[in-house]
Design brief:
It contains 15 helices and eleven strands. It has 357 residues and is an alpha/beta fold. It has one domain: Alpha-Beta Barrel (TIM Barrel). It has a seven-stranded parallel sheet with strand order 1-4-5-8-9-10-11. α10 packs parallel to α11. The longest helix is centred in the middle third of the chain and has 25 residues. The protein is globular and about 60 Å long. InterPro entries: UROD/MetE-like_sf, Uroporphyrinogen_deCO2ase_HemE, Uroporphyrinogen_deCOase.
Length: 357
């Protein structure tokens, strides 16, 4: 059966820094708890992992926001911790507590035993990618993703989320050899994992370096960016005759924008602390930029949302290379109506920009 023609390629053209009729928009965590239909599907699945590990459910929730809003890309519904889970660390999601590993990496033996997982352990992810692509019927592109080697390591060593990263930073400072071993294995695993998503049908991939911004300057380059570079160098960038762009998002990474832009990615995701116009001037035509509205703007009412969307788009200015997004994931408490206003405002204002330029 032939592949359906992609009906809306504005997102991919923006990542390639080509001219587009308007600025494309998608949202980090766009399939999530702010949507009542997502909560209903999650209840049927019985748990978060029951949802994420079932391709039928993962497909259903991936497509839900596209049924509500004219978004320009879909993103695979999964979790960044699938890879360490497949490494045997025992992932669980306790109600109200977030992810937790039963067997975190704490000893030299733990680290020595770490290995790139068999991708067969993650076939539920690739099955979901294939199913989502089929069910999209070429409507919009599908984004695959992974956590960065450093962000995965934070969870793998801490055993859960952390407010001070004391355990992982203790290892980093006192036993950098162990930390580098974890990161090396993670980088190999993430590259293989993303390539398998591309093989299954992901048309773009994103690396979430959610905790890169907790590192000091110098250490970010050594323990986070160096391993993100390794992942990018190992990616298949062409598949089935098409380019597969890669986006890197480091929360709190504005200080290192130019270094991230030089890492081998096609686009840099920005959080809301970065001025888009200055960022564009800094990176020139090397990469596209993605971002970067404060997610809390969506609680400010329709008029304020429209104003902040216009301010963000005007900050970037006319011309190619911008994908509109939030500066981090959407809050579970966001009114869906606010997202409707946001998407409409991005499309409308960016069309007006182009008409006036």
């Amino acid at each position: 059966m032939s592949e359906p023609k992609l009906q809306n390629d504005v997102f991919l053209r923006a990542l390639a820094r080509q001219e587009t009729e308007y600025t494309p928009v998608w949202l980090m965590r766009q399939a999530g708890r702010y949507l009542p239909e997502y909560n209903a599907t999650r209840a049927r699945a019985g748990s978060f992992l029951g949802l994420a590990k079932n391709p039928d459910y993962a497909t259903e929730v991936t497509l839900q926001p596209l049924a509500r809003f004219p978004l320009d890309a879909a993103i695979l519904f999964s979790d960044i911790l699938t890879v360490p889970d497949a490494m045997g660390l025992g992932l669980d999601f306790a109600a109200g507590e977030g992810p937790r590993f039963a067997r975190p990496l704490r000893t030299e033996a733990d680290v020595a035993n770490l290995a790139v997982p068999d991708m067969a352990e993650l076939d539920y992810v690739f099955a979901a990618v294939r199913q989502i692509r089929r069910d999209l019927h070429g409507r919009v592109p599908l984004i695959g993703f992974s956590g960065s080697p450093w962000t995965l390591a934070c969870y793998m060593v801490e055993g859960a989320g952390s407010s001070d990263y004391r355990t992982v930073k203790t290892m980093m400072y006192s036993r950098p050899d162990l930390m580098h071993r974890i990161l090396s294995v993670n980088a190999q695993a993430v590259a293989v994992y993303l390539n398998a998503q591309i093989e299954a049908g992901a048309q773009a991939v994103m690396i979430f370096d959610s905790w890169g911004g907790v590192l000091a300057d110098g250490l970010f380059q050594e323990f986070s960016l160096a391993y993100t570079r390794q992942v990018l160098a190992g990616l298949v960038r062409q598949h089935d005759g098409r380019q597969v762009p890669a986006i890197v998002f480091t929360k709190g990474g504005g200080l290192w924008l130019e270094e991230i832009a030089a890492s081998g990615c096609d686009a840099v995701g920005l959080d809301w602390t970065v001025n888009l116009g200055k960022a564009r001037a800094a990176v020139g035509d090397r990469v596209a930029l993605q971002g970067n509205l404060d997610p809390m703007t969506l609680f400010g009412g329709a008029d304020r949302i429209r104003a902040e969307v216009a301010r963000t788009l005007d900050s970037y200015g006319a011309g190619p290379g911008h994908v509109f997004n939030l500066g981090h994931g959407i809050s579970q408490f966001t009114p869906p109506e606010a997202v409707e206003v946001l998407v409409e405002a991005v499309h409308q204002h960016s069309r007006q920009q182009r008409a006036g330029s």
